[in-house]
Design goal:
By secondary structure, the protein is α/β, with parallel strands linked by helices. The protein has 2 domains: 157 residues, Rossmann fold (3-Layer(aba) Sandwich), CATH 3.40.50; 110 residues, no CATH class. The protein contains 8 helices and 19 strands. The longest helix has 14 residues. The chain starts with a helix and ends with a strand.
């Protein structure tokens, strides 16, 4: 708390991060992590006890976005106009003013690129009486952060100037090039039924899974550590070892897949060339 008391930028993220979010958190010094809205409100209220008042603060919430609305997921709280908790958070107006916050930034992939995201930003801006910023691109990842927090300000717009239509395709950012995708080079994992994922999982046999390559740019991958978005689905493919699977994550409305080659815990990302066809193939698979 003492570090936040002296900071002009209040960096807040999620407890229990996955590896991608952890990579971003490791780059940022002195961030606070919360499990949801209530802990965030308690954290902000605690700053009222700081001995020094700092004006012109930015409250930067950085975490994964999820779903078609690209809503920020802060711990267990979905920061969305459709979530009843947003009305409660709107009561923090006086607290934010008292601790010197004059802007709120929702930092995750594409948080300002959907009608739902823009409604959320506009609601918060009106209720809290401060500008609210979101990401106008799905390309928010580790390289956009340093020790001070988020540094790629060109990727943000406030609630009055966010684009009305989101980009049709994920533009390929600079990143370490990775060669062709091969199933025999992927890590085998044990999937525990007692720990279900918060998104759909489909099971594919090897024969059907090879048709995935028809819908991907499987020759040209990238390493994009810290990409701040949750999968929308996973396809599980049997590995050579009994009981293990290869995990194929679907990202950003069927724009990308991420797989995990042996020795690459950050994963490799490939573009989907035929998203509608791949979505149809996945929809015919058995859910687990």
């Amino acid at each position: 708390m003492s570090e936040l008391c002296a900071s002009r930028r209040l960096n807040v993220s999620s407890t229990n991060p996955d590896r991608a979010l952890q990579r971003v958190q490791d780059r940022v010094d002195g961030e606070a992590c919360v499990s949801g809205r209530i802990e965030l409100e308690q954290l902000l209220a605690g700053l009222l006890d700081c001995s020094t008042r700092i004006e012109g603060r930015s409250l930067d919430l950085f975490a994964h976005s999820a779903g078609k609305a690209r809503s920020l997921i802060l711990g267990g709280w979905t920061v969305s106009v459709d979530d009843p908790g947003l009305q409660a958070f709107a009561q923090m107006k006086a607290t934010l003013k008292a601790i010197g916050v004059n802007r709120l930034r929702l930092i995750g992939c594409g948080t300002a690129t959907t009608p739902g995201g823009q409604k959320t930003m506009s609601f918060l801006a009106s209720a809290l009486d401060l500008p609210v910023f979101g990401a106008i691109t799905d390309e928010i990842f580790q390289q956009d952060f340093d020790a001070s927090g988020f540094i790629a300000d060109r990727k943000l717009r406030d609630h009055t100037s966010a684009p009305r239509a989101r980009p049709e395709a994920f533009s390929w950012p600079r990143g370490e090039a990775i060669g062709p995708m091969r199933f025999d080079a992927l890590q085998g994992e044990l999937v525990r039924p007692a720990r279900p994922a918060p998104w759909p999982r489909m099971f594919s046999d090897l024969e059907r899974s090879r048709t995935l390559f028809d819908h991907l740019d499987a020759e040209n991958g990238r390493s994009l550590p810290g990409l701040l978005t949750q999968p929308i689905a996973e396809i599980l493919v049997p590995a050579e070892a009994d009981g293990l699977v290869h995990r194929i994550e679907i990202l950003l409305d069927w724009q990308l897949v991420r797989v995990y080659p042996v020795g690459n815990p950050d994963g490799a990302v490939y573009r989907i060339r035929r998203p509608h066809q791949l979505a149809g193939l996945a929809g015919a698979l058995e859910q687990v």
